[in-house]
Amino acid sequence: MKRLEGKSAIVTGGTRGIGEAIARAFALEGADVLICSRKQEGVDGAVAGLQGLPGRVAGLACHVGRESDCEKLRDTALREFGKIDILVNNAATNIAQGPCLGFDDGQFDKMVEVNLKSVFRLVRLVAPAMLERGSGAILNIASIAGLRPQFESLLYSMTKAALIMMTQSYAIEFGPRGVRVNAIAPGLIKTTLSEFFWKDPARAEKLMTLQPIKHLGQPEEIARIAVTLASDESSYLTGQTIIVDGGRLLGW
Prior knowledge:
The chain is an alpha/beta fold. It contains eight helices and seven strands, in the order βαβαβαβαβαβαααβ. The chain has helices at residues 17-28, 40-49, 67-81, 105-133, 154-174, 195-198, 201-208, 219-230; strands spanning 8-12, 32-37, 57-61, 86-89, 136-141, 179-186, 241-244. The chain has a seven-stranded parallel sheet, with helices on both faces. β2 (32-37), α2 (40-49) and β3 form a beta-alpha-beta unit. α3 (67-81) runs parallel beside α4 (105-133). The longest helix is centred in the middle third of the chain and has 29 residues, at 105-133.
């Protein structure tokens, strides 16, 4: 039996990078998955590339920063699959890179809207049915920037740190009712969001000297951890932030 057989999941930001890798890994393990992203063409392309797997994959254009879109996402998952066993809050943005005194209110609000408020809204929409059923898994994709500040990235680091605290807060309330909440804190992973750090070979090579494992992280390496956290293999694990960074935070 596959590890996620009979389960259904929502994966936000699921059309590329870490989100797409998680959706693929879930479907390979038998889960039915609803992915979303802001642009319909991106959703259509990702869904087409995720056909023929043991689990069914559907898609929806959705801006997670809008409450009505979050409601539509929840309702679509229920219509397609009948229930939601797993929620992966992966969608994020990083529009503000630079000196902390240079950020404006608009950038602050946008980062909070996408990186935090979307999680708050989706958990509020999805968790009640999990709690009533007495089972479920919520997984938040944080970052090592939420554990140690990333230089000239105040807003991204701030929102990821808050996401880790949200994870812990949900975990202590939901755990007694059968719902687990955990986070993954990736290090440098080869995605579009982080291409500033790895696209330049010299910069990427320098960053690799700072970690014991010398290869650039791949989305699939995060997805494998996500499958474990979403499955019953992690039945005694909640409120944790699993660091997957090639050893970067060891200060090696």
